[in-house]
Amino acid sequence: MADQRREDDEQHPPGFGRLGTKVLELAENVVYAGIALFLVVTALVLLVLAGKTTWALVTDLSETPVLELLDVLLLVFIVVELLFAVRTTVEKRELIAEPFLLVGIIASIKEIVVLSVEAAGTVGTAGFADRIVEIGVLGVLVLLLGITSLLLRRKEREPDEGENAPADPETRDRS
């Protein structure tokens, strides 16, 4: 009986009944559903914009519509990754860092692409050096975010530490 009471205490904070917890959980789900709805609408609007930009390529074969299309498509990737992050958060009931790292990587790559095209038009000016520095900083950011994502994946593959962790085979053989 004491074990059951302890489990209830861990699931529901003191002074906060089951009804309060259920209300907060419902409110959280409504907020997440709203965020997901706005992200879906944003992705659809961006896809329509990408279609419009693609149609503009028929009449204008310059680099401007191509760059705009790439920019919009990378924004779609960002929105879809954010939608995935919301879905994962709702399913697992915990905040997962990796989708946000991927959003950071995609956003940084998007800026690198835009800055590279802009830098090509400013060769020989003071603005060129600034853009090159920005591209370098963004490149380092992409590298760091990628390493962080790799380390997170490696950490997820490791067995859990603590009482419920599986015994180490070397330790088990020595006993």
TrEMBL record:
GO terms for cellular component: plasma membrane. It is found in: Cell membrane. Its main location: membrane. It is a multi-pass membrane protein. Keywords: Cell membrane, Membrane, Transmembrane, Transmembrane helix. The keyword Cell membrane applies. The keyword Repeat does not apply. The chain crosses the membrane at residues 30-49, 69-88, 100-120, 132-152. Pfam families: PsiE. This is Phosphate-starvation-inducible E.
